[in-house]
UniProtKB/TrEMBL annotation:
<comment type="similarity">
    <text>Belongs to the class-V pyridoxal-phosphate-dependent aminotransferase family. NifS/IscS subfamily.</text>
</comment>
<feature type="domain" description="Aminotransferase class V">
    <location>
        <begin position="2"/>
        <end position="361"/>
    </location>
</feature>
<dbReference type="InterPro" id="IPR015422">
    <property type="entry name" value="PyrdxlP-dep_Trfase_small"/>
</dbReference>
<dbReference type="InterPro" id="IPR015424">
    <property type="entry name" value="PyrdxlP-dep_Trfase"/>
</dbReference>
<dbReference type="InterPro" id="IPR015421">
    <property type="entry name" value="PyrdxlP-dep_Trfase_major"/>
</dbReference>
<keyword id="KW-0408">Iron</keyword>
<protein>
    <submittedName>
        <fullName>Cysteine desulfurase family protein</fullName>
    </submittedName>
</protein>
<keyword id="KW-0808">Transferase</keyword>
<dbReference type="InterPro" id="IPR016454">
    <property type="entry name" value="Cysteine_dSase"/>
</dbReference>
<dbReference type="Pfam" id="PF00266">
    <property type="entry name" value="Aminotran_5"/>
</dbReference>
<keyword id="KW-0411">Iron-sulfur</keyword>
<keyword id="KW-0479">Metal-binding</keyword>
<dbReference type="InterPro" id="IPR000192">
    <property type="entry name" value="Aminotrans_V_dom"/>
</dbReference>
<keyword id="KW-0663">Pyridoxal phosphate</keyword>
Length: 381
């Protein structure tokens, strides 16, 4: 088996796993401050908060733990929209993850507003002029993802933030694919609201964070009230083992990011060169744009991506974003980039990660070449 779907999820790093396993056997509730078991669980959460804050170079009190990026997006986007009723509209890029699109729809719907979508060009780059024309003082939040999960295309967060700030709208950045793969500044400092997830940076599933200053946190409407955890913004018992693992993974991301992305860039480039040498009719979605080095979204002309995947069951890649792949609808990201439904259905996302080796790349390239040739022959027959 070769796993090349790291944008969908990453394995827990072997340096994180032992501590997570140890914490699983500790049963104190971090909210039970009256006894030692609870206090020690609470201390573990606070250490993780320090680690996540330092990764982003943000104060520790800016970190609000959630169950993942989806929940953080709901808290950030719906919470901010509800807290600003005289500004019911939300602006998002057309290529945001479904989690952000759905949260924006919900926030706008509950506030009686609308979602305005910013166009992208054929390389997936956000059209800043269009963004500028959509932003006015009825807009509470402008949501721009730092890096796209399907194509790896990076967004002009600085330009989008300048436009949002002009009218006093909050800047929401989905950094789920960006954290651990790119230099985090200045993006982390430009965002009023930023979300990301443990299971994309070699931490356990079930933990994520919303990053917002204390001042912004005060304008958010809490959506999961109750126990008062996370300063009343996210009630519910903390997932201590996952949050501890998230903190350790964040610490590793800080030290490994540059090394990982340099190494992965070399492998991804070799992989692409090999495929192009051996197969005609390959197009890269996002070509020409600044992109994450680990993500290759490739169209194999005349070969249906799902048929290609079925033809190479030992190579694990994605024919669209993981959250969408249960439903076979064309990727909204590729459609927004002007691809037809057929072109989108011929596109495969290959994403490399920290454990990826040159051997795996060679095995995957062989398998993809054979599978594409086979599918093209069957289609032509
Ligand atoms: N945003 C982006 C860009 C993603 O890639 C994902 C997951 O695929 C999410 C949000 C949702 O993250 P989570 O799985 O932590 O809810």
């Amino acid at each position: 088996m070769v796993y090349l779907d790291y944008n969908a999820s990453t394995p827990v790093d072997h340096r994180v796993l032992p501590t997570v396993a140890e914490v699983l056997s500790e049963y104190g509730n971090p909210a039970s401050a009256q006894h030692r078991a609870g206090q020690s669980a609470g201390e573990l959460i606070e250490v993780a908060r320090i680690r996540v804050g330092s990764l982003l170079q943000r104060p520790v009190q800016d970190v609000v733990f959630t169950s993942g990026a989806t929940e953080a997006a709901v808290l950030g986007l719906v919470g901010a929209t509800l807290g600003a009723c005289h500004r019911p509209n939300v602006v998002v890029s057309a290529v945001e993850h479904k989690a952000v699109l759905a949260a924006a729809e919900l926030g706008a719907h509950l506030s009686g507003g609308e979602v305005r979508k910013v166009r992208v060009d054929s390389a997936g780059r956000i059209d800043l002029m269009h963004l500028d024309s959509l932003v006015d003082d009825s807009v509470s939040v402008v949501a721009i993802m730092a890096a796209n999960n399907e194509t790896g295309v990076l967004s002009p967060v600085e330009g989008a933030a300048a436009t949002a700030q002009r009218v006093g709208a909050l800047v929401f950045v989905d950094a789920t694919q960006f954290v651990g793969k790119s230099e985090l500044q200045p993006v982390a400092n430009l965002a009023d609201l930023m979300v990301f997830s443990s299971h994309k940076i070699y931490g356990p599933k079930g933990a994520g964070a919303l990053i917002a200053s204390r001042h912004i946190q005060k304008v958010l409407t809490p959506l999961s009230a109750g126990g008062g955890q996370e300063r009343g913004l996210r009630g519910g018992t903390h997932n201590t083992p996952s949050i501890v693992g998230f903190g350790l993974a964040a610490e590793l991301a800080m030290t490994e990011q540059k090394k990982d992305s340099d190494r992965i860039a070399v492998l991804a480039n070799e992989f692409l060169v090999t495929l192009k040498e051996r197969l005609p009719g390959i197009e890269m979605n996002g070509d020409g744009a600044d992109r994450l080095t680990n993500t290759l979204n490739l169209r194999f002309i005349g070969a249906d991506a799902e048929a290609v995947m079925a033809s190479m069951p030992t190579i694990q890649v994605s024919a669209g974003s993981a959250c969408q792949s249960a439903v076979s609808t064309p990727s909204h990201v590729l459609l927004a980039m002007g691809r037809s439904a057929t072109e989108a259905s011929e596109s495969l996302r290959i994403s490399l990660g920290r454990p990826t080796t040159r051997d795996e790349i060679r095995i995957a390239a062989d398998a993809i070449v054979s599978a594409v040739v086979r599918v093209r022959e069957l289609t032509a027959a």
